[in-house]
């Protein structure tokens, strides 16, 4: 049986500690201490999900201790166990210490296990819904109902059938691969240019799988330095590094039982790749600054716009991590490779824009759709969305016409720039792909006069990701702004 969470028992009677440990240890990791001082020392080095505290202890009551815990470590769900039913204690516990449950002695083992399971689930739900700061007097039933409704809506919004494509589109085969992957608990690596909809496919795989009723969480691995990325994914204790001002539960733990989507996995450093590989191999994490590892059951879907096989050969990406992630690879075609879908996607985007901009009469001029079909869309679907929003903002009438700028751009399909001295057609596929990518970036830098923010936005890259590519292709001199400050 898998361990569902970590429980801290605070009780001055050793026999009571052992009784609680014996009942709970099959389902939870149980840590026992005999007083508040030892409990606080443990909380400084461990992440716990729930606290079971005796009310009548020497020197300090359970309510007094948990009130202090609420101020210093607000995340664990707090519970009192007592052989007394003093109403004043109960009221004080509920109001001052944010007690979730007041459990009276003698307790029944089956009932206690269910209460603790509910407490751990409440902890996870609060983290998942970003409500960790709310008072834990909120009922788990209410939070479960809210999360259940949100997941039901998400499942409808991210069904495979909602991915817009025509019958003859190359996306048809991609979706079929996604459906097959969803049926099996296997790691998926989604490749493709930025803005092609890799996260959309990842969500469809999750909500089409047996994990659909659990969390789907997302992390952009190219946006953070290693230490912060470790903290985000694996969690950390307060004070583990400069800037760690509070305990943080990692996204792997938030996603326990569900799916984690690691976007831009190709941007990670070799040092971080080693740590991620261990997590995937052992199915366990160690929060920064914590003393113990924690078991997690998470499906990983990763995505990248890089050629990871080429990165492996170049020594920039670990071969063992690549094979761990790419158990089931799926490639997303660029928008220019599926021109038959452009008008369908554009109409879908316009439907959303009508609602968000409160302009229900907006419509495309035929010429606009024609221009869309001619343009090469280096930023893919994300660029198409941005273009339609921009057209709606600039339009004084309900009919949307493609701006002249798009018309001029449509004829400027970037030709690959010969690289590595191989202009005679002898270049490898990797060289040709890199030449095309460099050409697209140069084209975008020219169009936006080197403005880093606008280039990153159009290409669907983070500023960190764009900075790496500019350095890689020696294009820093073409960029303006604070990208290299």
TrEMBL record:
Gene3D superfamilies xrefs: 1.10.8.60, 3.40.50.2300, Homeodomain-like, P-loop containing nucleotide triphosphate hydrolases
InterPro entries noted in UniProt: AAA+_ATPase, AAA_lid_NorR, CheY-like_superfamily, Homeodomain-like_sf, HTH_Fis, P-loop_NTPase, Sig_transdc_resp-reg_receiver, Sigma_54_int
Transmembrane segments: none
Database matches in Pfam families: AAA_lid_14, HTH_8, Response_reg, Sigma54_activat
Molecular function in Gene Ontology: ATP binding; sequence-specific DNA binding
Keyword set, alphabetical order: Activator, ATP-binding, DNA-binding, Nucleotide-binding, Phosphoprotein, Transcription, Transcription regulation, Two-component regulatory system
Sequence positions bearing 4-aspartylphosphate: 54
CDD domains tied to this protein: AAA, REC_HupR
Region: Disordered, residue numbers: 404-429
Domain Sigma-54 factor interaction: 164-393
GO BP annotations, alphabetical order: phosphorelay signal transduction system; regulation of DNA-templated transcription
Limits of the Response regulatory domain: 6-120
Protein name: Chemotaxis protein CheY
